[in-house]
Amino acid sequence: MGSSAVWAGEIENRLVAFPHWTAPNNLLTDGELIYPEWFAGEWQVTSILQEQIAPLAPKIITPGFDRNKTNIDRAYQFRVRFGSETTMVSPGISISNDTATQVLANRSFNGQQIATAYLGEKAVDSIQVIKKPQIKQITKLASGTQLTSVMTGYQKETSQNHFTATEVNQQIFQWKTIYLNTVETTTSYQLLADGSITAQQVTAIYLSPQDPEYFKALQRPVALYRYSLRLIPVLTSNG
To answer: Beta-carbon neighbour count of residue 113 at 10 Å?
Structure first.
């Protein structure tokens, strides 16, 4: 997958190398993923799954991979929010005071919106976000399924109108049985002149060490999903 960016960092090069991936390295494990100031606000998102690959098929195919084929080229729409929060600055950073305003994803709102768009309005019972000691999101579905997602690392690269980020989460599905995996989401965002944002996003699924097939896959993804995104700013009554 190519990129129109005139610069390329480690994450951008990773996207160019798609689908020849292994698990990402050099991830930060402390704190929250901080977005550029131009992300602040509410956005109407259109997400389209363009391609899905099972690199280790037919030996290893994740649950739901074949079912997801029906989503290819289908546009899903939902809203997301990124808000400014005043947080403590990490020790060692030179600044005039000990707080800073940072743009963070509204994980509770965004998780609710995305889950509802893909699963239906009545499918989601609740979403809870816990910030410490690790960022954890607990999604309870009407079916009785619970998905717990714990952020284990992130990485980002920023230029004036370009932002690329990787976030890795350990996921635990609990229903009749327990299924664990690791999910990497890597996204390259481009701010356009009209104020909208376009993006290319790849979600990679890796087996957890508890999976009996883990040593067959090692650090290779067992499923890859490539999306195109378009974010349109939502005008507020004060805008």
So the answer is: 19
The burial of 88, by beta-carbon neighbours within 10 Å (0-12 exposed, 13-18 middle, 19 or more buried), is given as: exposed
Cα separation, 223 vs 55, whole angstroms = 6
- The alpha carbon of residue 94 and the mean position of all alpha carbons in its chain are separated, in whole angstroms, by 30
Q: What is the pLDDT of residue 8?
A: 60
Average pLDDT of the segment spanning 8-24: 90
DSSP code string of the chain: -----S---HHHHHHHTTTS-----S-B-SS-PPBPGGG-EEEEEEEEEEEEE-TTTTT---TTTTGGGGGBT-EEEEEEEEEEEEEEPPTT---SSSEEEEEEE-HHHHHHHHHHHHH-TTSEEEEEEE-SSS-EEEEEETTS-EEEEEEEEEEEEE-SSEEEEEEEEEEEEESSSEEEEEEEEEEEEEE-TTS-EEEEEEEEEEE-TTSTTHHHHTTS-SEEEEEEEEEEEPPPTT-
Q: Please, are residues 40 and 83 in contact by the beta-carbon 8 Å criterion?
A: yes
Joined together, the tokens standing for residue 91 give: 């020790």
pTM for this prediction: 0.87
- The CA distance from 223 to 204, in Å, is 6
For residue 222, pLDDT over 60 is answered with: yes
For 237: left if phi > 0, alpha if psi spans -120 to 50, otherwise beta; the answer is alpha
Asked if residue 146 lies in contact with residue 138, where contact means CB atoms within 8 angstroms, the answer is yes
